[in-house]
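C-alpha cells help. Consider this.
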Amino acid sequence: MPTQDQTENQFALTAVVTGGAAPRGIGQATAHRYAQEGWAVAILDLDEAAAKERAAEISAETGAPAIGLQCNVTDPASVTGAAEAVKNSDLPPVGALAAIAGVASPVDFLDLTLDEFNRVIAVNLTGTFLTCQAFLPQMIENGYGRIVTTSSVTAQHGGGVFSKTSYAAAKAGILGLTRGVAREFAHYGITANSIAPGVVDTDIRVGSTPDREEQLSASVPLGRQASPDEVAALYVWLSSKDAGYITGTTQSINGGSYVS
C-alpha cells in the first residue's frame, strides 16, 4: 500500500536513509521499501561506492529515482554537504528521514575506553542529531516531514542482547532526542518517532558466532530474529500520511523480548 497519497503522484517526495548501503542491513531494506511504496530515495553512507550501487539497484528494480552519497554522520560538514547535495539534486523534495546509521559495541563496561565510548556515541547519537538538524529545514520548507530514528531494545533493558553499556547509552539518548524533536516541530506538522528493534538478522554484530546467533534467536519469545524487511516496513509506515497523528513515540519491534 503506498505510504504517501501517491496514486497519481508516485515519487512525489524523497526519503533520506542514512546507513543504507550495507547489503544485509536495515538501512538497505528500508531504502528498497521506500522505493517500492512510491518514494524517491537518497542513500547516505560512509561507503560512497556501496551507496551508489544500492541506489542503482533500487532504480533498476523499482523505477524510483535514487541517488547514493558519501556521508560521515559524525562530521557536521559532511552531513551539511550531503543535505545540500540532496536538495540540489533532481530528486523531489525531502519528506522523510530514516536515521539508521549506527555501530554496535559488545565491550564490557570496565574494559570500555573513552575513545570507544565516544565512537559509539558519535555514530549513533551525534550522527542522529546532525542528520535531523540538517534535513529538518527542508521538511519545514516542503510542508511535510517524518523523522524516524533508530534506538534499540538494548536501550530499553540496558543490554542483554549483544552490545552493552555504551550502545545502550547512545540508543537511550536517541529516545530523548527524538521526543525533543517531536515536541519542538509538532507545530509544523512534522512528526518524529523512534524504532527500537530487537535482534535483527543483519551483519551489525561484528564478531558474533553462529552459536551466539542461535542463542539470540532462542531468547526471543517468537523464536527467531526479525528480518530487515519487517523492520523496514515500520520505518515506511511511520513516514506515511496515515501515521500523521503519531509523534514522540518509541515503536518496539522485538518479537516479545521486551514488553513495556
Strands lie at 14-18, 40-45, 66-70, 94-99, 146-150, 191-197, 250-253. The helical segments are 26-36, 48-62, 76-87, 114-142, 153-157, 165-185, 210-218, 228-238. The chain has one domain: 14-253.
